[in-house]
Amino acid sequence: ETASQGAHPMNFLNQLRIGKRLTIGFLMVNALFVVMVAITALQVERVRTVSMDMEEQAEMLSLAEKVLADVQQNAARSQAIARSADADMTSYIGSAMAAAMKNGAELQKNLGARLRHPDGRRLADELTRTQREWMQAQDDMRAAREANDATAVRRALNERLMPAADRYRQAGAALADWQLLQVREMRTRVDGSFRDLYIWIVVTTLGAVVVAMLIAPAAAALSRAPTRKAATFSTGMRMIRPRTSSSRISRSRCLRATGPS
Fold first, then answer.
1. Are 222 and 18 in contact (CB under 8 A)?
2. Are the CB atoms for 132 and 108 separated by under 8 Å?
């Protein structure tokens, strides 16, 4: 008997009452449903988190591109001021450059506060360093112009201002390119998260179908069990009633045949 039960694991369930079997099946279905809902919620939360990170990286890319635009404009304006001999033009370009520098400083401060990756912070520090060198080169250029030293002006322009402006532009471009790379990597992560979510939805749907197919025969068997028991009971009662009636008839005949005592 023990070997038979080991060969047929369903014997244990078959020995249980219908109510207990229904309770076990109901608990199993509920447990499976809770697990599916929990994993689906985790997948949705993952997609939401990655999407928020993607949005933040896109905003930072916009800031980096604005910083780069200001850097390029200011570098070109500083060279135009160094080469211009018109005081009015120099004053006009200088005013525009000062406004752009103020706006660029706010953008750089905002971008630097949101950078958390070490590489991004390193590039932001490099941009700040090259900006200081560029501003120092401008001061040297103005000092040479005020001294009316043509040789010093050419030297400051060719050896200080132009190289500093190039390094300033390169630092801004490096930061913008790095931020663009972050956006592309984040987009790949977002696509992967959505793909995993779609795959899990398909797996969950197929799992629900398989579970339904496995439970349906058991439920049908459970529903037929009371009917079979009732039919067996009814058949037994029909077999008992004729015997009871015939025994009563035989007894009455015997009484009539013997007569009253």
1. yes
2. no
